[in-house]
Write a structure and sequence with these properties.
Order of helices and strands of chain A: EHEHHEHHEHEEHEHEHEHHH
Shape of chain B: globular
Strand content of chain A: 5-15%
Largest sheet of chain B: 6 strands, mixed
Oligomer: heterodimer
Helix content of chain A: 40-55%
Mean pLDDT of chain B: 96
Mean pLDDT of chain A: 94
């Protein structure tokens, strides 16, 4: 089962696919895997990324400029799968591109491409009935976001619907790096532990090795997104190399402690 | 999600609370200027030579449009929930102005998100909001219009959800917004129905309203839904052409999809990316439509037609010169439809057009487009 974390803390790396182009995304993903990522979130660019901060908004715009679409992201997933058999692959998308393709067709193609899980960021668990049934038929793991503001009852629902891991959002708000990862995160992980045995990945705002180590103390895995996308943005022409270095350095503090 | 549940709960309680309803009713009467008149459009009727035309005068409300109905309602809810910070999106600026007004009245901090393209074309409303003490934040992403302003307001809301209320201005977004906003605007149709029965002793053959998100339209339609013989006609922005990106006629070029938490008809491309839209009227310039309109249309209870930029501008001049009323460019789309439809109707028929707002905010665009000098 590729959606597992072999070391503590595990690392989940997010990229916006097609930024700046799909060939670069493939190279970036392989470099991240090489440098230690356990799970890759393949972000599908969307015209209206309401849950994202400015960094991923800019990446989405760049990717959409040359028409990157969900079908291409699934093709990319299949290519990555050929090169990396034990890495978890999660498609990270807004709902509309999936609806447009058709839920059934999307799940079929995704499974065939070797995708393990799907995170639909604007699909609340309360509305996910049909989605969950289709995902189950195709043996795909649905991943849901849990927020610090979610009441216990909702956390329970999220935990019950999730497979693979639960994605705990470290604080309220959109994606993007923050100076401090709120104490909210630790509390949320504690609350989630009471309702699930699944690994818990914490994300939103983690951008350096210190934060990675800090969160890694209480979470099973750490998600790094905007910081990766920003590294891609800042290193035109040597994106894969830069991301490889960045990912390698992220674990430096945690490893030093071992 | 937790905030939506809280809002749903509070709204449910407020709806049943006579004290809340009395306070809202009093503010609508003593502050906003309700009831608004239903004016018989004598010269327009003569000129078109068909059905008898009445205008529901939401343009006479405080702040110049129907938007204040919903803002007062949600403002009182904010008080109940004990929040102090209010955010809103705005397209034409009418909802932004109404929100800034209510925040001044009730003493809330107010931030309004507005696309920079809309800020340019609705300059006057930007100044009004600032004068009322609101902070106007320009949004540079996407087409820099209403849709992008909503995206940014949603981002603010998820970040500051514990202290902030998102005062959404149309029948869009996640539950409970579409039903709650509709309920606050139902007063338009309730008044209009009673007024027409008093004036004419019968129901109208048709009710016509412009539809962006669809708040003024659902507000005037709702009370007539049960009157099966009354045709309900929504008018979308036909813009400057039929191609994707040239208009905001969701029922002509859209297909089912999800935007900003609403499942409805959406203008989108084959990969599910939301399309840009165009309309001379900022308030109709939006790629999706309130889900209740989609339901009314699919059930065959309401029909939706486009009016082009040019038709809306022409209707503006016509209404100004026959009735002495300068409508907002949004409302002018509804007028454009009655111009087409009234001559084909019987003289004994009565039709109501909702004049959802007044045209002062659009004077700059009208001046550029109409070239009267």
């Amino acid at each position: 089962m590729p959606l597992s974390f072999y070391k503590k803390p595990g690392m989940v790396v997010y990229v916006t696919c097609g930024d700046p182009d799909l060939a670069t995304t493939r190279a970036v993903v392989l470099a991240a895997i090489e440098a230690g990522a356990d799970v890759i979130e393949l972000g599908v660019p969307f015209s209206d990324p309401v849950a994202d901060g400015p960094v991923i908004q800019r990446a989405s715009e760049r990717a959409l400029k040359h028409g990157t679409c969900l079908a291409q992201v699934l093709t990319l997933a299949a290519e990555v799968r050929q090169q990396a058999q034990s890495t978890g692959l999660v498609v990270f998308s807004y709902l509309n591109p999936i609806l447009r393709m058709g839920m059934e067709k999307f799940c079929m193609v995704a499974r065939h491409a070797g995708v393990d899980g799907v995170l639909v960021i604007d699909l609340p668990v309360e509305e996910a009935g049909e989605y969950l049934r289709t995902m189950q038929v195709h043996d795909l793991a649905p991943v849901f976001l849990a927020a610090p503001t979610s009441p216990d009852e909702r956390l329970k629902r999220i935990a019950e619907a999730s497979r693979g891991f639960v994605y705990a959002v470290s604080r309220t708000g959109v994606t993007g790096a923050r100076q401090q990862v709120a104490a909210d995160a630790k509390k949320l992980v504690r609350r989630l532990r009471r309702v699930t045995k699944l690994p818990i990945a914490v994300g939103f705002g983690i951008s350096n090795a210190e934060q990675f180590a800090e969160v890694g103390k209480f979470a099973d895995a750490v998600v790094v997104g905007s910081a990766i996308v920003e590294t891609i943005e800042r290193n035109r022409g040597r994106e894969a190399e830069a991301v490889g270095e960045f990912v390698g350095n992220l674990t430096a503090v945690s490893l030093a402690r071992v | 999600m937790a905030a939506l549940e809280e809002l749903d709960r509070e709204y449910g309680k407020a709806k049943r609370d006579p004290k809340f309803q009395r306070r809202l009713e009093e503010l609508l009467r003593t502050y906003a200027g309700r009831p608004t008149p239903l004016s018989f459009a004598r010269r327009l009727t003569q000129k078109l030579g068909g059905a008898k035309i009445y205008l529901k005068r939401e343009d006479l409300l405080h702040t110049g449009a129907h938007k204040i109905n919903n803002c007062l309602g949600q403002g009182l809810l904010v008080e109940r929930m004990g929040k102090r910070r209010v955010i809103a999106e705005t397209g034409a600026g009418q909802h932004g102005v109404a929100t800034a007004t209510v925040c001044a009245l009730l003493g809330f901090e107010c931030v309004v998100y507005m696309g920079t393209e809309d800020m340019r074309r609705q300059e006057l409303n930007v100044f009004r909001m600032r004068l009322l003490g609101a902070e106007v934040r320009g949004v540079e992403s996407g087409s820099r219009t209403l849709k992008d302003a909503i995206n940014e307001a949603m981002r603010d809301w998820v970040t500051n959800v514990r202290t902030t209320h998102y005062l959404l201005g149309s029948v869009l977004g996640a539950h409970p917004y579409p039903t709650m906003v509709r309920d606050f605007h139902r007063v338009i149709g309730r008044e209009a129905r009673a007024q027409i029965l008093k004036a004419e002793g019968k129901l109208p053959a048709a009710v016509i309203a412009c539809v962006g998100g669809g708040s003024n339209a659902i507000g005037i339609f709702y009370e007539f839904i049960k009157d099966k013989k009354v045709r309900l006609i929504g008018v979308e922005a036909g813009g400057r052409g039929e191609g994707l990106g040239e208009h905001a006629a969701r029922f002509r070029g859209g297909s089912p999809g999800v935007l900003q938490g609403t499942y409805s008809y959406v203008l989108q491309d084959s990969a599910g990316q939301i399309a840009n839209t165009h309309s001379v009227s900022a308030g109709l310039d939006y790629p999706s439509i309130g889900p209740e309109h989609a339901a009314l249309r699919d059930a065959g209870r309401a029909e939706y037609v486009p009016a082009s930029d040019a038709e809306a501008l022409e209707a503006t001049t016509l209404l100004a010169r026959t009735e002495g009323i300068i409508p907002a460019l949004e409302s002018a789309h509804a007028v454009a439809e009655v111009v087409k439809r009234a001559p084909r109707m019987k003289k004994s028929d009565v039709v109501i057009v909702n004049i959802s707002g007044r045209g002062d905010k659009d004077i700059g665009i009208m001046r550029e487009s109409l070239k009267l000098e």
